[in-house]
Amino acid sequence: MDGGAGNAILDRGHGPRSVARVLQLLDRLAGAPQGASLAALAQAMDAPKTTLLGLLRGLAAEGYAVQANGVWCLGPEAYGLARAILAGQQDGGLGAAGRPLLERLAEETGESAMLSVLAPDRSAMVYTEKVESRTALRFSASVGDHRPIHCTASGRVMLAYLPPPWPEEFLGKARLTPLTRTSVTDRRSLRRIVAEVRALGYAVTLGEATEGVVGIAAPVFDARGEVAAAIVLAAPLVRAQPKLAGLARQVRRAGRELSHQMGYRPARRDKKEE
């Protein structure tokens, strides 16, 4: 930025704290496509109206915010910046944002963590990033590996969250070949499982795709609110089953964080999710 108006963003604040509030303002406005009033922003951020007004005016002077009909919205420069950032990422930034999260998830859980996307022809899931467990007994995968949709946790996430008509078409017509003795291939049972995945926010498979391996997956949403990938944790059944609930929470948390980094802004809740 150049000129006095832009400097108001910093001059009227308190250094790093002011910078943090500017970023929080942009985040709040990104989550309010219809706009937000100054009063609503002040309440949500627990900040004085006068302070936020100075920051908003500084953003508006540079084109990053606009005011209309009593509410504040993102300005054209904010959208231009977002497009410029995403243009530098072939996958929309999914891999760059996902890698550090996978590393942290693998470190915290001691298990292998992957990103999985639906193949272009929607015939299989494909691993696009991986961080393997450091333990001797672990699930091992390669980037580019194709995995079946119907009996993997990541595939069931896609069935649960992709819009119609594809999920029902797949469940009605796809060949559901069992990979292990516990693979679910009954179409009615799969429909029930997919409904449960959507209700819970994550999917779990117990030895269905690989004998003795637990798969846990949660959705990753893009800025349009569409499911773009699944973040997956895979672990030996004997080690993961006793702590399944805790691992599922960690996978869901990682999925929400990666979704946020991808620009997903769901309706905000006063009560934070666990």
TrEMBL record:
Domain IclR-ED per the UniProt entry, residue ranges: 77-264
Keyword match Methyltransferase: no
Top-rank taxon, per record: Bacteria
Keywords: DNA-binding, Transcription, Transcription regulation
InterPro entries registered for this protein in UniProt: GAF-like_dom_sf, HTH_MetabolicPath_Reg, Tscrpt_reg_IclR_C, Tscrpt_reg_IclR_N, WH-like_DNA-bd_sf, WH_DNA-bd_sf
Domain HTH iclR-type per the UniProt entry, residue ranges: 16-76
UniProt signal peptide: none
SMART domains, per the entry: HTH_ICLR
Protein name in UniProt: IclR family transcriptional regulator
